[in-house]
């Protein structure tokens, strides 16, 4: 036993152990999050009296539950740290709501897309988020990006196109002819997800607030918007009744929310302790593992050309991460690093902001708006 624990007795050994814990924590949390998304939205939750499969289709209910869990997590963290000022509504409520509206639309579209397209198609679609982020950053914030950013975006777009055109992309229980609905929802997701990060950046620039303050109020207003949508459409009680009739569904949705919050805390610690480069590499690896495991667990039959398109996308992302590391070490990086770094942040976490002491992640992969530390990314967000 002592021999097994010996590496932890020196600082470098302990650092490696913490790095392994963070890496495995992020990957495990977000793989579980992706698995539950597909299980909830794309597989039957049971059968009715006629023996027909019963599906759950209301993504807004999932958003409501996720946002409530994220808001509770932010409140608990501030209470434990005795950051009582964080509970004060610093910005006008409508400014928090401006972030919430775009985030609710993006997340709902992301979940709903799984009704019509497979998880591999959805995951690759989320890799293309850097394209609208470049557009929004240029149009709304006047940011400049380098040739590498546009080159990687082009390679990702080509890889996604090859994937979409060379094999099956529809969800297991949907018709192939309806895949365009899922693709349209992914376009909505990409557009509003990039818009969310721009709103967050403007909010941080205009007000002095902690990341947990924004996490609390954005998630509370997101929950309020989701609840309002469910009430006016008379779907809330039907969703609760569905959960009562299918207890496993409720357990899955609760675990979905907890896995998203868990991932964000692992992300926060990872970036704080080991930097954004490790995080970017871990997140790219996690996305590939999501596609690989989804093929195994849900029996998606990807063609050879689709695997080639997947390799193009992740090859471009890994190359971007490598070049970003090289440019930081290069003496000339002081002239070009800002543009490269800005794009690097926006690809991996469109919700990241310029203010160094307050960074936000929207998952896009992760389901909740959550704080991350300086230099952070999100994927996330899940």
From TrEMBL:
GO molecular function, one term: 3'-phosphoadenosine 5'-phosphosulfate transmembrane transporter activity
Keywords from the named record: Membrane, Transmembrane, Transmembrane helix, Transport
Alphabetical list of InterPro entries matching this protein: SCL35B1-4/HUT1
Region (Disordered): 330-382
GO CC aspect terms: endoplasmic reticulum membrane; Golgi membrane
Subcellular location as annotated: Membrane
Position of the signal peptide: none
Protein's name according to its UniProt entry: UDP-galactose transporter
Organism field: Cyanidium caldarium (Red alga)
């Amino acid at each position: 036993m002592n021999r097994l624990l010996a590496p932890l007795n020196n600082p470098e050994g302990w650092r490696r152990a913490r790095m392994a814990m963070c890496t495995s924590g992020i990957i495990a949390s977000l793989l579980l999050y992706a698995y539950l998304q597909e299980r909830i939205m794309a597989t039957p939750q049971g059968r009715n009296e006629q023996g027909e499969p019963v599906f759950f289709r209301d993504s807004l209910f999932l958003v409501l539950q996720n946002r409530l869990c994220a808001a509770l997590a932010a409140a608990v963290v501030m209470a434990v740290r005795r950051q009582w000022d964080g509970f004060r509504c610093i910005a006008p409520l409508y400014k928090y709501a401006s972030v919430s509206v775009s985030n609710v639309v993006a997340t709902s579209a992301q979940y709903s897309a799984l009704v019509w397209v497979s998880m591999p198609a959805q995951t690759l679609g989320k890799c293309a988020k850097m394209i609208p982020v470049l557009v929004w950053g240029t149009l709304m914030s006047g940011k400049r990006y380098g040739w590498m950013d546009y080159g990687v975006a082009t390679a990702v777009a080509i890889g996604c196109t090859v994937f979409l055109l060379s094999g099956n992309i529809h969800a297991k229980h949907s018709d192939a002819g309806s895949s365009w609905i899922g693709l349209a929802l992914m376009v909505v997701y990409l557009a509003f997800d990039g818009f969310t990060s721009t709103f967050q950046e403007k909010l941080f620039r205009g007000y002095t607030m902690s990341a947990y303050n924004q996490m609390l109020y954005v998630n509370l207003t997101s929950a309020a918007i989701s609840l309002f949508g469910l009430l006016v459409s008379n779907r809330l009680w039907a969703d609760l009744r569905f959960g009562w009739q299918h207890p496993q569904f409720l357990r899955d949705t609760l675990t979905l929310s907890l896995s998203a919050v868990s991932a964000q805390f692992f992300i926060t610690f990872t970036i704080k302790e080991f930097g954004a480069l490790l995080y970017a590499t871990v997140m790219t690896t996690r996305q590939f593992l999501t596609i690989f495991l989804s093929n195994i667990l849900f029996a998606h039959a990807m063609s050879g050309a689709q695997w080639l398109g997947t390799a193009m996308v992740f090859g471009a992302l890994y190359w971007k991460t490598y070049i970003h590391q090289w440019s930081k070490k290069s003496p000339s990086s002081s002239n070009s690093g800002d543009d490269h770094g800005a794009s690097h942040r926006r690809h991996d976490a469109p919700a990241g902001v310029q203010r160094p002491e307050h960074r936000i992640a929207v998952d896009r992969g992760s389901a909740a708006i959550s704080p991350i530390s300086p230099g952070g990314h999100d994927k996330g967000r899940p």
